């Protein structure tokens, strides 16, 4: 069960998809014609479109390497004179310069691009330049308040004069070659082109005057400047323009003017830098001289040549003086000790000799004194003091003792004087050493200023040389890697893209048109549409649309698709009629006029009428009779109106034989009456139908439309089955709601729908194919293709 449900669901989805795409498949030729039309239009567009070419040039923005000396002071003025390095980060600035209005304006002025010249053509105007232009236009001066022509300016050459005409001017303007002419927007001059080669132009031209700044803006909008690689300084400058020669001249001149402006800026900057460096050198030189003088005065004032050396000498001298003082005090102490010892001892004792006394005379006297004392003691051992030799030695000892004492006193005085001098010297050296830190601090400050001034002075001298070199060897900032070159393949319009777009548009336009038609289509077209809208009643049949020239009536033994469609309809109707019942009443009606109600009723009767089945058709629409249109000579015959009005009129008097089928009789509507509703309500109609049931197998009632009048509702109760006729591409979908309402309210009974005038593309399966050969099958294949 589940598998059956899934299969049924897949089949429904397939059918839904088929229904969605069916309108597009039926109108396949729309897509074919749409593609042909758009491709032809694309061909004409490409034939007369002005091709746009891409012109490009490649430039290398030169980069000066930064110094690698590692000197931090170089970074302070590394940008002076334009001698600093340029990294890739600054390439954006150069791109912005290329896109600047100032640079492009200089190109426009120099090349005289303010005015474009076009050769007048039948379908398109072509811009001419250089050899293809008969003259050039130079703007001598622009009027800031001038008014440029809003309309086209036409130019022609007469003899040696250019004649200008425009709707913006009251009269024509004549300008001789090489003579200035005043225009509303400024003063211009026409120069004859000696290299002019007349081509296919007819001597008529169009001038497009524009101010320099506006032309600059227009050209900048076409200019593209970009970096080729992220880490490089190579840029590509390109322009899309219809005249390759003009684009090449613009790009080449753009590079030349860029280098010129860069050199001017660089030279001007270098000159200003050189002047600044000279001024600074002069000022730093003066300041350096002042520092040198201050250093000299400091040394003279402090009586020093070098603080470090002087400080060392002072410390060394102080140490020597201190050592001298120690030695001197030692000698003084030794002398004082000897003097005291000499005073305490008697005259005949030995004195200390090797005690470190530095006075050699005193030491010598002490030695002689000790020898005499020793000699006297030796003599006294063998003699007395009366001995003359002893007396003589004693006398010498006394004299020598006196001399030693005097010598020691003199040495003490001398040592005391020396000690005083040493102390003075020591005080002087101590004062000098204590002043060294302050002097060193002041001297270092002076020396620091001197070093700074010297380094800056030397650096400025170096920069002055570098600036002088840069002025002497100034080179273009941008090196042209590739000259301006135009790609011969146009960038616009792209033929393949245009044709592809035409193909897509050729498909989209029919698709959109069909979609809109389907979206806003409120008409029933197919059996599926009718089945979706009908509330319960089945669609008993589809009646094919008649081709031009074919008969509207079915003939005996007719094998046409129309006859087969009515046979299918009859088969489906018979399923709804009582079995083995004679006098079946088939009520044929519709919602509005024009849906094919009478056509259906007549052909239904003709199809039912056979040797074994007798049929009568009653024209029950007495307001607007339609049966007579199939047989004009039957107009005026007595019919239904007369029967319902004249109670004495018999049924046999209004029945007429059909001229199309001998087994089918006709009761025409008769005369048009002013009170059809009253006639239909008098009961005579039901009596007529009942009387016919015994004589005919089928009674076909051709009634009036239900929505327009109430006539058909009055007689609807006599019907065994109601055939509700709708017409493909005519009956509005809202009318089915009306039919559903009547069915729901049981105002009509046993209803089946019939879809009339169904074109072949809208038919269901059975009606698309015949059984046996038909007229359609005998047609040529190409007629079938476009049927």
Summarize the structure.
The protein is of the alpha/beta class and 787 residues long.
Verbal overview:
- With 787 residues, this protein is an alpha/beta fold.
- Helices cover 49% and strands 16% of the residues.
- The strands form four sheets. The protein has an eight-stranded mixed sheet, with helices on both faces. Strands 3-2-10-5-6-7 form a six-stranded antiparallel sheet, with no helix packed on it. A four-stranded antiparallel sheet has the order 11-12-1-13.
- β5 and β6 (161-166) form a beta hairpin.
- The longest helix is centred in the middle third of the chain and has 59 residues, at 244-302.
- The chain is elongated.
- The two termini are 44 Å apart.
Features:
alpha/beta; 787 residues; eight-stranded mixed β-sheet
Chain-wise SSE layout:
Blueprint: H1 2-26, H2 28-48, E1 53-61, H3 91-98, H4 101-111, E2 115-119, E3 126-128, E4 135-142, E5 153-158, E6 161-166, E7 173-176, E8 180-183, E9 186-192, E10 204-209, H5 212-222, E11 223-227, E12 234-241, H6 244-302, H7 307-344, H8 360-380, H9 388-434, H10 436-472, E13 478-486, H11 495-520, H12 527-533, E14 539-544, H13 561-574, E15 584-590, H14 597-608, E16 615-619, H15 640-645, H16 651-654, E17 656-657, E18 664-667, H17 676-680, H18 684-693, E19 698-702, H19 711-715, E20 721-727, H20 733-744, E21 751-758, H21 765-768, H22 781-785
Parallel strand pairs: 14-21, 15-19, 15-20, 16-18, 16-19, 20-21
Antiparallel strand pairs: 1-12, 1-13, 2-3, 2-10, 4-9, 5-6, 5-10, 6-7, 8-9, 11-12, 17-18
């Amino acid at each position: 069960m589940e598998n059956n449900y899934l299969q049924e669901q897949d089949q429904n989805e397939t059918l839904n998809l088929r229904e969605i795409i069916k309108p597009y498949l039926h109108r396949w030729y729309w897509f074919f014609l749409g593609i042909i039309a758009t491709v032809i239009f694309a061909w004409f567009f490409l034939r007369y479109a002005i091709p746009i070419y891409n012109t490009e040039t490649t430039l290398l923005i030169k980069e000066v390497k930064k110094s690698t000396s590692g000197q931090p002071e170089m970074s302070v003025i590394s940008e002076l004179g334009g001698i600093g390095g340029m990294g890739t980060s600054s390439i954006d600035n150069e791109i912005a310069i290329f896109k600047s209005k100032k640079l492009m304006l200089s190109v426009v002025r120099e090349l005289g691009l303010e005015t474009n010249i076009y050769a007048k053509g039948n379908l398109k105007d072509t811009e001419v330049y250089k050899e293809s232009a008969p003259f050039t236009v130079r703007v001598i001066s622009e009027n800031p308040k001038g008014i440029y022509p809003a309309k086209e300016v036409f130019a022609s050459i007469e003899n040696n004069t250019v004649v200008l005409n425009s709707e913006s001017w009251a009269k024509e303007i004549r300008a001789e070659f090489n003579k200035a002419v005043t225009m509303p927007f400024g003063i211009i001059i026409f120069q004859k082109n000696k290299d002019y080669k007349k081509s296919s132009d007819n001597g008529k031209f169009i001038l497009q005057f524009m101010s320099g700044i506006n032309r600059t803006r227009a050209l900048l909008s076409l200019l593209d400047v970009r970096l080729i690689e992220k880490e490089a300084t190579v840029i590509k400058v390109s322009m899309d323009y219809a005249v390759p020669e003009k684009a090449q001249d613009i790009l080449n001149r753009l590079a030349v003017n860029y280098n010129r402006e860069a050199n001017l800026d660089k030279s001007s900057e270098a000159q200003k830098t050189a002047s600044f460096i000279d001024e600074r050198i002069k000022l730093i030189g003066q300041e350096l001289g002042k520092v040198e003088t201050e250093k000299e005065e400091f040394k003279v004032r402090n009586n020093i040549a070098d603080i470090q050396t002087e400080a060392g000498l002072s410390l060394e001298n102080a140490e020597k003086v201190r050592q001298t003082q120690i030695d001197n005090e030692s000698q003084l102490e030794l002398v004082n000790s000897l003097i005291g010892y000499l005073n305490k001892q008697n005259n005949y004792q030995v004195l200390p000799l090797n005690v470190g006394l530095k006075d050699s005379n005193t030491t010598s006297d002490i030695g002689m004194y000790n020898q005499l004392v020793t000699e006297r003691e030796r003599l006294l051992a063998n003699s007395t003091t009366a001995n003359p030799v002893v007396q003589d030695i004693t006398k010498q000892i006394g004299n020598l003792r006196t001399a030693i004492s005097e010598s020691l006193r003199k040495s003490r005085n001398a040592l005391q004087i020396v000690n005083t001098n040493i102390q003075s010297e020591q005080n002087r050296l101590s004062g000098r050493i204590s002043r060294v830190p302050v002097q060193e601090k002041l001297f270092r400050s002076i020396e620091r200023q001197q070093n700074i001034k010297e380094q800056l002075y030397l650096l400025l001298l170096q920069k002055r040389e570098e600036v002088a070199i840069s002025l002497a060897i100034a080179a273009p900032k941008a090196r042209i890697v590739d000259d301006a070159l135009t790609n011969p393949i146009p960038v616009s319009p792209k033929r393949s893209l245009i044709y592809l777009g035409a193909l897509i548009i050729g498909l989209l336009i029919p698709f959109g048109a069909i979609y809109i038609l389907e979206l806003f289509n409120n008409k029933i077209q197919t059996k599926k549409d009718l089945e979706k809208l009908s509330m319960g009643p089945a669609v008993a049949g589809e009646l094919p649309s008649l081709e031009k020239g074919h008969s509207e009536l079915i003939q005996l033994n007719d094998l046409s698709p129309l006859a087969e469609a009515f046979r299918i309809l009859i088969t489906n109707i018979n399923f709804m009629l009582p079995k083995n019942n004679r006098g079946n009443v088939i009520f044929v009606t519709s919602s509005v006029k024009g849906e094919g109600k009478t056509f259906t009723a007549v052909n239904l009767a003709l199809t039912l009428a056979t040797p074994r089945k007798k049929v009568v058709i009653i024209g029950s629409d007495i307001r607007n009779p339609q049966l007579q249109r199939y047989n004009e000579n039957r107009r005026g015959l007595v019919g239904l109106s007369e029967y319902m009005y004249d109670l004495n009129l018999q049924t046999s008097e209004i029945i007429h034989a059909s001229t199309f089928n001998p087994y089918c009789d006709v009761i025409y509507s008769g005369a048009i009456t002013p009170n059809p509703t009253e006639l239909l309500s008098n009961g005579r109609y039901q009596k007529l139908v009942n009387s016919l049931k015994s004589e005919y197998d089928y009674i076909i009632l051709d009634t009036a439309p239900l929505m327009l009048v109430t006539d058909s509702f009055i007689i609807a109760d006599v019907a065994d089955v109601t055939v509700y006729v709708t017409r493909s591409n005519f009956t509005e979908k809202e009318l089915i709601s009306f039919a559903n309402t009547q069915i729901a309210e049981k105002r009509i009974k046993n209803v089946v729908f019939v879809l009339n005038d169904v074109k072949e593309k809208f038919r269901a399966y059975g009606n698309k194919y015949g059984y046996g050969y038909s007229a359609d099958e005998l047609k040529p294949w190409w007629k079938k293709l476009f049927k």
